[in-house]
Each structure stands twice: as structure tokens, then as C-alpha cells.
């Protein structure tokens, strides 16, 4: 009878162990699906670290990635490190040992192990006890990083924990390599797009920086209107490329030092339609599919008097309506061959006056909510060495709309701070 009871208890314990194992594997499978759709490496590393700590019931988890050229392991994902980048020499500590040997380390008492490096504990005021550390390998079997899990709650890390982490590590390595590949491709794409814009701007030195400023104005307005994510990225690329069609404008017209004739003006207007035509030949996918239309519509007006299609109101894409303000504001606040930059009061008043005719009123309100310090930094192409920190702090107290209202007041009715704000803004604006 006693033997039977003992046997039943063993079966029940084994069943509980198998159910726990099944549950944990199920969690890993579901999590594997989630991490495969996370493309930003920083977000992915944080997600993996959080899930590993939870799964293994540990106090901390650090994901180190290997930099072979610099011979170090680095991470921005170390719990309680406050987002600071953590670097470890590849020949130091348990993580370094795992990275160089490819072996798994599971120790109950870190300080009793000669390979342990206490420097990180000293920097973070933490006491490492138990450590489970294993290599992250890609599909080719190359070590690309190290998982380090610290201080198992309620004891030491078991062989079961080690097996779980091994499975999890394989999934994580694949996802991390994919995210890094995606980011490298995106970086190359960004570089190529900015090079195209710079090539167009370079045709006329007078318009240098125009594409960058229009992009930054557009993104700033969009953020004030609550636009983010994929829409914001779509706007970014469309803004960078909005003048691509100027490649088809004759040099003599583009750099004409005099006011354009009616015929020349009609010729330069063709650039908007050409921008769209050129961009439609590019194979933009998914949420970037609208780049040609957004970029090619930045000269449309809400009253239908714009070009190239004379679209009206909501027939114009919302992002194009944002870009229309950015493009005009940069044009009137920049020096051209035949005129100087417009005085800031006149420029802001023009944007406000044309709300509802040239510009979408909602987008104008978004523009008027732009912090004044941000506005002047864009006007001067973010030339950080231009600005004194105390001046930027002063300007940050006002939005663009508030500043316009101040400019419209008589000087005698302004407070000392408002007068100083006007003086400091005009100092930078006129340089």
C-alpha cells in the first residue's frame, strides 16, 4: 500500500512537472511569434530581457551583443541600469568567458567563482548571487551575444531553467539578427533618400537645406497634431523627397536671380507633378505606398487654386496639407536670389491669414503650437553652436502662435520677458 502511494505521488509530481514544462514551452512559442514582429533592436532586447526574467523568476536579465571589432560585449538592456549603455571587455567576467568559449555557466555563488568580475556590481550597488549565462548563436552557429540571468528567486538556477533559456536563446538570436538587418537596410534607405534630396538642393546653393527644414517643420507640425508611428515616417520620407521633380526644371529657371516670368513660373510648377511621376516608379511598399501622392501634392491649396491637380479641401491628403505649410514657411523665411527673408512677423501673419484658403486651418493651428525654441532651431538648420542655452530656455516658454500675438502688440504693452523674447528671437533670425 505504501509503495503504491509513493508511486502515485511520483506520478503526480511528474505530471505537474510535465504540465509546467508544457506551459512554459507554450509561453515561449507565443512569445516567439511576438518577437518576430518587433523590428527595433532596442525594443526587442527590452522585450526579451523582461520575458526572460519573468520566465526564470530572476531578479535581473542582461542581453549582451558582441562587437567583434572592439572586442567587447555591450548592452542597453540591463535591468535597473536606467537605460545606460553597459560595456564589458570580451575577456572579462562570466559573460566574457561564455562569449569566448561558447560554454554555458550556471553558478550558485558568483563571488566564489574566479571568473566573476565584480566591477558591475560595484558600479550599480547590486549583489550578484546565482548566475545563469549562455551564448546566443545565430543560424550559422556563430556567437552573436550572451544571455546573463542573475539571482534566481527562491534558490539556484536548475537544469530545467538552463534548457528553457537554451530554447529561448535560439528564438531570440534569430529575431535580433532580423531586427539588426532591418535597421541596417533602413539606415541605407535613409542615407540614399537624403542623398537624393541633397543632390536637388545642391543645384542651387541658395536653397541649400530646404528639404531638411521642410521635413523638420512637417514632422513638428504633425507631432503637435498627434500624428505618430507609420504616418509620421511616411510624412518624413515624402517631405525629404518633395522637390525631387526639380531635377526636370531648367537650370536657368531654377537659379534665375530675377523674379520669374509667367512662363518661367509655369515651368517651375511642373516639378510637383514630376515628383509624383518619378516616385511612382519606385516600388514603395505597405505604409510607404502613398509617398508619391503625398510628396507630389505639397503645392495644392484647400481652396482648389493650387497645383498640379487643383485639388480642394479633404481631397488633398492630410499629410500634404501639413507639408504645404512647411514648404511655404521655409520659402518665405529663407533668402532667395531676388529677395531677402521675410520679417518674422509678416511671415507668421501670412500663414495665419491664409488659413482656410491656402492652408488647412487645423494644420495651421498645429503649426502655431510649435515651441518657439524649436522653430528658430529649424530656421537655422539646427546649428547648435548658434544658440545660447539660456536663450533657448527663454524661447521655450512660448509657442509660435503666442509669439505672433506678442509681435502684434505695441512694444510699450509688453512685459520685460516678452521684450527680451522678441529681441533674442530676432537676433538669431536675422543672423
Summarize this structure briefly.
The protein has 431 residues and is α+β, with helices and mostly antiparallel strands.
End-to-end separation in angstroms reads 97 Å
CATH fold call of the largest domain = Hypothetical protein af1432
- Please state how the strands of the largest beta sheet are arranged side by side: 3-2-1-6-5-4
Q: Kindly report the name of the CATH homologous superfamily of the largest domain.
A: Hypothetical protein af1432
SS class: alpha+beta
**Beta-strand percentage?**
5-15%
Nearest-integer average pLDDT: 87
Shape: elongated
- Low-confidence residue ranges: none
Number of strands: 6
* Major sheet details: 6 strands, antiparallel
Commentary on this structure:
The chain is α+β, with helices and mostly antiparallel strands. It folds into two domains: 2-180, Beta-Lactamase, CATH 3.30.450.40; 187-429, Hypothetical protein af1432 (Orthogonal Bundle). Helices cover 55% and strands 9% of the residues. The chain is built from 17 helices and six strands. The protein has a six-stranded antiparallel sheet with strand order 3-2-1-6-5-4, sandwiched between helices. A hairpin with a 4-residue loop joins strand 1 (58-67) and strand 2 (72-75). Helix 2 runs antiparallel to helix 5 and helix 6 (210-224) packs antiparallel against helix 14. The termini are far apart.
